[in-house]
Write the structure tokens for this entry.
Amino acid sequence: MVKTRIGCLEAPRKISIREREIEIDENQVLVKVHKAYICGSELHYYRGKYPTYVSLPIYPGHEGGGTIVEVGSKVSDYSVGDKVIVYSDVLITPSGADPLFSDYVRSPLRCLQRVPEGVDMDTACQAEPLSCAVDAIYKSGVELGDVAVVIGLGYMGQLILQGIKKMGAATAIGVDVVDSKLKLAERRGADLVINAREEDPVERVLEETDGRGADVAIEAVGSGKVVNQAASMLKKGGILGMFGWVTRPVEIDLSQWHTKYLKPRVLKIPSYRDKMPWAEKGFQLVKQGILEVKSLITHEYRLEDLAEAFRKYDTDPNVIKIAIKP
Ligand SMILES: [Zn+2]
């Protein structure tokens, strides 16, 4: 039996820290959390924008890992001291592991991934979001010489933009409304950045492509309006990558999907098991210097300050990703 704190979203914009005692069963391990990161989707829930089938309270925290401190009597594959990534519950794919804004979490073995040799724990704990971004990069359809646009330069958008540039996009364009995020994208190899608050990104992309439109446009915001923007800046037959999670029904301008025979792609990994190989790939790309993740962690808070961390994320547009340390 171990005592642990656990972060709880009680109501929109209301976070509390609860305490509880947990005990592993014979097929589980107990993990002392190293760090967990706040997901963009959790900011949506914090703002009250969660899918209609969800009701509060919920326990967020699905990006992280730590060190095994206890193993169940039937566990032979893992031992105390092993460093692991824990694929904890997310709203749409419950896994069975405890939420990670905690001191300790219980996990069945199926939710664990070993931290590979040479990967530091801060990076390892980003396995879940990293895997989603890497999957999107490979499925984006970007080819050598393309004009490719990413709208929304949060953690995911930044990584996708880095990746598609390295995949061979001749012109990798980043769109956001926050200067610090645009500057970071520029430092990481973007050929052009557009502040959508200062100019119309659709017009600018059309101008840059002599009216033809981009080959690929990826929506990484989670907004119907931005999906429409991405469609409007595409060439005929262009690929519309939908990455952002649009949590509520929105209006989509389907007519241009037809008239421009666009190729829509939902860039999404179906389950936590499918994320593991992509995380592995992501670690390799980080090691090779193809992806850079360190500068994407802009803030760090202690678990007791989880409410303050969410408030910061909600109100400061310069936040890219926040680490929570127990
Ligand atoms: Zn996430």
